[in-house]
Automatic annotation (TrEMBL):
This is DNA translocase FtsK. The keyword DNA repair does not apply. It holds the Pfam family EIIA-man. Residues 74-306 form the Sigma-54 factor interaction domain. PROSITE patterns: PRD_2, PTS_EIIA_TYPE_4, SIGMA54_INTERACT_2, SIGMA54_INTERACT_4. It comes from the Bacteria. Residues 536-661 form the PTS EIIA type-4 domain. Keywords: ATP-binding, DNA-binding, Kinase, Nucleotide-binding, Transferase. The keyword Coiled coil does not apply.
Length: 892
């Protein structure tokens, strides 16, 4: 009887088109959940492929008909591998059955692939039959059990040793008429070597436990990472053809570039997606020390392709998958340190017209035999995890910043931020607040502890967002769920009880990951966190020469009367990597002194790459300024001792001395100012905050960007990236974040009218008051003090806003300011003003606002000797009414 899983597989085979889990469930008359489980199992097996989308679809995997690699398309065939290929062809063609061969080479040099090329050549040269076997075996798999090892190679007769319950043919018999490839042949014990060269001498062998000799026509190809000294001398004599494959470091940059291109082309074809790699990333891959040779190069390229795919899936505006320097593994980034050492070899790769190497899908690809990463699993894994916003089971790659493990810090700062006792009245429902208090009253009894109001409020806000997420089928994986369950087992059990009551109240199902978050709210101790002492940005001076850096720094320190700054002299005989190692060790030894970041001042060359390495290896934000002079060092240290932020120091030094600094021109910043809305999950509360901010500000002038702030360092790094081309004027968030001197606005302030007014004042406007005065003075009577008038009007309008709690865009306030100024000028000139239709009715309808506005305008009347009539005031009140923003603050 067929299993349900087999039925699902047959249904997919019967219909080669893409199908959803629901369609298959309907077709088979079974539950959709079970079908979905079977499909996921078949996907992991490689039998079925998943097509991402909404909804997800599945299709039977088609068998690849791609060709195999051979000597004709092997990279290096006319250069580094030319003599090796010639020797291997001679070994294949040598009569009567070819020469046994051993291939020497480091791990990852392509020994298995080279052996496969030898087999393909033998078939094409008609030395072997088209269906001749090519058997591969890794001797290391059974090196600890010689009997099993010999049994696999030569076969076993029943009863030969304990556990040998049946007679079994060995690989030697299976390879008869073809080639037996023995990888890691050096793991074959001396006894095994003796057995093997007996076969080489006579063409005969014996199975274990069998006294009868057997014959076979087999060409042996061995591969090893060791030298010939590891083998018996008799063994070396019997394998006359020895081929040594070069390491990746011994191959030319042209060949290495070809390997990189070929692999990226495979990925582009596999994904049907254009892939671009920037020049510095390409240079890093060309120059870094890949200890695992081609194998490691391919793994590292696979990693960056996976990261590029991740970025493209989440937030990329480009149609290409972009491989950029910051996504490279640290070991690859260190390749840039070698640029000076091989400068002459890099000339062909330094075409300034080409900033990217682009590979388009569809180009015919050369297939690497036995490529373990040929499948799409890593990309399916990313897509699947993105749907869940999780990161587990991504074994091949390390998606460092998809979601952070540092959740504890979030709860400490998040709860502290949301400690405003009355805010719940405006942003969460009474029913939810009542339920939360009931839950915490119950928890207080169970845990024998008190939970104050700010913890309860933070929990209420979190549950409010959780309910919205669950109803919207958006789930968040807890990055430390297993640790939480082990460390807080009692709280976790209580969280399950609380979640049951929430489920009943709101008719939802709370997943286990959300229960993990609830657990963490129950573990809060609400102890006040001591603030870390404010530290200064560190200034590092790195210069070539025996005393250049220290002399320059001493001069600056003497001028400023400070000891701030660290000098690293770099003698010309000192290797760049050793210099970086010294700096790295120094920073690690005094890590707490670098919490505010590093300004790295260099003169030229490879040290310019140190900043990126410091950030990725130690997590310390670093800005690099090259072609440094004494003046640059002086200004950097002066600003650092004043407590300026990393970005302030960097931008200030660059703007003041850009004619002295050979760096890219400062990036032209976007016209729109940016407001960051930062939230723990990036959902729920963040979405509501975005809506509120978008109502308060003029979206033609401001851009609102939502960002996840779960992990501080990742968040700060993203700010560093944005600030280079955007003017960030404020961060609005649920957890307090002070960085780069950017004003921080607590989320609660956007639910209080008086605080919203302060927020608007902070943002300012596109046109400043002095600019308005300068541009409009010529339009007023000469005797009118325009500057004083505008200043007073601005004060009056701010008074009106605050007294009447009006939320109005700054652009509307500016327009009203100009209107009142011209109105005063008309009154002074005795010109006629327009009548307001039904002014009496309007006055009575808006009596309170009308009277409040008239009282505020009296300040202008007194100072400028004018009188506003009922029609004048009516126009001003109507403008205020028409531009007033209603936010609907009752719920998130």
């Amino acid at each position: 009887m067929k299993s349900r899983k087999d039925e699902v597989l047959e249904a997919l085979r019967a219909n080669p088109n893409e199908q959803t889990a629901q369609e298959l469930a309907d077709q088979l008359g079974v539950d959709r959940t079970n079908v979905s489980r079977y499909l996921n199992e078949l996907t992991k097996d490689g039998t079925v492929k998943k097509i991402d989308g909404r909804p997800v679809k599945f299709q039977i995997t088609t068998v690849s008909t791609e060709g195999h690699i051979n000597f004709d398309n092997l990279i290096g065939r006319e250069d580094s591998l030319k003599s090796q290929i010639q020797k291997s062809k001679a070994a294949i063609l040598y009569p009567p059955r070819g020469l046994h061969t051993i291939i020497f080479g480091e791990t990852g040099t392509g020994k298995t692939m080279f052996a496969e090329c030898m087999y393909r050549y033998a078939v094409s040269a008609k030395v072997l039959d088209e269906n001749a076997p090519f058997i591969t075996f890794n001797c290391a798999d059974y090196a600890q059990n010689p009997q099993l090892l010999y049994g696999h190679i030569f076969g076993v007769k029943r009863g030969a040793f304990t556990g040998a319950e049946e007679t079994r043919a060995g690989l030697m018999e299976q390879a008869d008429g073809g080639i037996l490839f023995l990888d890691e042949i050096h793991r074959l014990p001396p006894e095994g070597q003796e057995m093997l060269f007996t076969f080489i001498d006579k063409g005969t062998f014996r199975s274990l436990g069998d006294g009868q000799e057997k014959q076979a026509s087999v060409q042996i190809i061995g591969a090893t990472t060791e030298t010939s000294s590891m083998f018996l001398s008799t063994f070396n004599r019997r394998i006359p053809m020895q081929i040594e494959l070069p390491s990746l470091a011994e191959r030319s940059l042209d060949e290495r570039l070809a390997i990189i291109k070929e692999f990226l082309q495979q990925e582009a074809n596999r994904l049907m997606q254009e892939i671009a790699i920037d020049k510095r990333s390409l240079l890093a891959f060309l120059l870094y020390n890949a200890e695992g040779n081609i194998g490691q190069l391919k793994r590292d390229l696979k990693l960056v392709c996976a990261k590029a795919f991740l970025h493209h899936q989440t937030n990329s505006e480009s149609e290409k998958l972009m491989i950029v320097e910051e996504d490279l593994p640290l070991v690859v980034q260190k390749g840039l340190l070698r640029m000076n050492e091989v400068q002459d070899k890099l000339t062909p790769f330094m075409d300034k017209r080409n900033l990217y190497l682009t590979l388009k899908p569809g180009t015919e690809e050369v297939v690497w035999g036995q490529d373990p990463n040929k499948d799409m699993e890593v990309y399916h894994s990313i897509t699947y995890k993105l749907e869940k916003l999780g990161r587990e089971n991504l074994s091949e790659i390390d998606l460092e910043e998809l979601i952070s493990d540092d959740v504890d810090q979030y709860f400490e700062t998040y709860v502290e931020e949301l400690s405003h006792s009355n805010a719940y009245r405006e942003i969460i429902s009474d029913d939810l607040w009542k339920l939360v208090n009931e839950l915490y009253d119950f928890a207080s009894v169970q845990m024998n502890r008190e939970y104050d109001e700010k913890v309860r409020f933070a929990f209420a806000l979190h549950i409010n967002s959780t309910i919205e997420r669950i109803r919207g089928n958006q789930f968040i994986s807890h990055p430390n769920l297993n640790d939480i369950r082990r460390s807080y087992s009692k709280e976790f059990q209580l969280a399950i009880e609380l979640s049951n009551r929430i489920e009943e109240a709101y008719n939802i199902m709370i997943p286990l990951d959300e229960i993990g978050f609830i657990t963490m709210f129950l573990t809060m101790d609400n102890q006040e966190q001591q603030k870390v002492d404010e530290r200064q940005v560190a200034v590092l001076v790195v210069m070539h020469g025996k005393s250049t850096a220290s002399s320059m720094l001493e001069t600056v320190q003497e001028l400023l009367g400070t000891t701030h700054g660290i000098a690293f002299n770099m003698p010309l005989t000192l290797n760049t990597e050793k210099m970086y190692g010294q700096i790295k060790n120094y920073i690690q030894g005094k890590r707490e002194e670098f919490s505010e970041g590093i300004i790295l001042l260099t003169d030229m060359g490879s040290p310019n790459n140190f900043g990126n390495l410091i950030f990725h290896e130690m997590g310390i934000r670093t800005r690099v300024i090259s072609m440094t002079s004494t003046m640059l060092v002086l200004e950097s240290i002066r600003l650092a001792t004043l407590g300026r932020s990393l970005e302030e120091i960097y931008t200030s030094v660059i703007s003041m001395f850009q004619t002295m600094v050979r760096l890219e021109e400062p990036t032209q910043k976007d016209e729109k100012k940016v407001i960051i809305v930062a939230c723990f999950t990036g959902e729920g509360v963040s979405k509501r905050l975005n809506e509120v901010v978008s109502q308060i500000v003029n979206l033609d002038e401001f851009e609102v960007i939502q960002m996840q702030s779960l992990e501080r360092e990742s968040f700060k790094h993203r700010i560093d990236q944005l600030i280079t081309h955007k003017d960030i004027v404020a961060i609005v968030g649920t957890m307090e974040i002070h960085y780069q001197k950017i004003p921080f606005i607590p989320a609660m302030n956007l639910f209080k009218r008086d605080k919203i007014l302060e927020f608007q004042d902070l943002l300012g406007s596109t046109i400043t008051l002095p600019e308005m005065v300068d541009s409009l003075t010529k339009n007023f009577s000469p005797e009118l003090d325009v500057k004083t008038l505008f200043l007073l009007i601005d004060d009056v309008l701010q008074l009106i806003r605050k007294d009447q709690e009006l939320i109005i865009e700054n652009t509307a306030m500016q327009a009203l300011s100009v209107h009142i100024a011209f109105l005063v000028d008309k009154i002074k000139k005795g010109e006629e003003r327009p009548a307001f239709e039904n002014v009496k009715y309007f006055h009575q309808e808006h009596l309170l606002r009308f009277n409040q506005t008239a009282a505020s305008l009296s300040l202008i009347e007194k100072q400028f000797g004018v009188h506003f009539i009922e029609d004048d005031i009516a126009y001003i009140v109507k403008t205020l009414e028409d531009n007033r923003i209603e936010l609907g603050l009752h719920s998130v």
